[in-house]
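Notes to self after the call with IL:
- keep both proteins in one doc
- input above output, always
- annotate only the second one for now

Protein 1:
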Amino acid sequence: MSNTTTVSPYETSVGAVSAGAAIVRWLRADTQEDQQIRERLEEERRRERLGPARPAGELFTGESEVSLASARLHMRDLESLVRSAEALGYRVEPLVRPTKPLFRQSQVLLKSASGDRLAVERSTDGLLAVHAKEGDSIQRLVRHNQSSRAAGHFRSRGMDLRTKVLPHGEAEIEATELGRTKIRAQILRDGSAQLDVDNMAGRTCEDLVRGTAEAMGAKVVSMSPKAAYFQLPGEPARVKVRG
């Protein structure tokens, strides 16, 4: 056995970021004010381009900012996050006068058939932040995205996959390579993941874990080597025997 690792897609935890008043109003809007709010967002974008840059989660509104369920992510891939939202039943709310292609926009608004809303924002450093009425909506989106990206990464390596849904909505992906090396990714409820690698020694194991985290748009939080990490190629497994 080789390595157990925790990775997280969050730069800040859910609830730690604030969003501008226009985003808050859109998230809480019913129907009739939607177009006016989207126009307001476009005006804010124009004013932002003319003024100093602001980090994700702090939209210029000319009004005091209001906190809501938000999270700033390590992710930069807007398309991947939007595709996950679409898989969960959300659709993109088009801007009235878009000036950029969808995945180059600084904000994307999403709404489900049930009326649940998400806003995804790209900061000047390229990182993404997600805003919603409830933290559960953000975690559900991130959890789906991390599961999809982990599975896609393992498939790209030619690994055989087995997936299952665990209690409370968690997901487990078990990937096997060459019938021997095994990595188990458990995607937790909040979207963070625990990776467990078997039958791989030394830096190869560490490289596999870091490559998986990078493919998921996440960062390694902790890494604990297991016995086989220190095992040389061809060396028999070390077994501790009690006398």
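Protein 2 (the one to annotate):
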Amino acid sequence: MTIEALAAAQDGTEHQDAIADAREKIRACDAKMARYRAAIDAGRDIAEITAWINAAKAERVQAEADLRGIAPPKRMTREDVQALVEHFASIGAILASADLAGKAAPIGRIHPCNQHPKWASDLGRGGRI
């Protein structure tokens, strides 16, 4: 996989989904308030409907605050990805050049090959992982 592909693979939909959800809540509140105004125009109890309108306004204010609070996702730049790849490559180079006895103990604890008798014995005889 190329550095460009790794950098592009960061694109997720969570940010856009959160924005769409907040905007949908705002639209739903506007629709409620329009229905409530129509009910008032139709002669319904204004005191009761005013409470509904106030609740819808509060929901809308909260959805607007949620929308303003949605931070854009943090993305690694191509250079960030390159630096990360180089860092891990340098770790691999250090492990590859380390003396086998020195790396067999720490890697042996986590490496799956230590579970296989032939591979584990190869490590003890100076074999490579």
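Annotation: The radius of gyration is 30 Å. Residues 78-124 form one domain.
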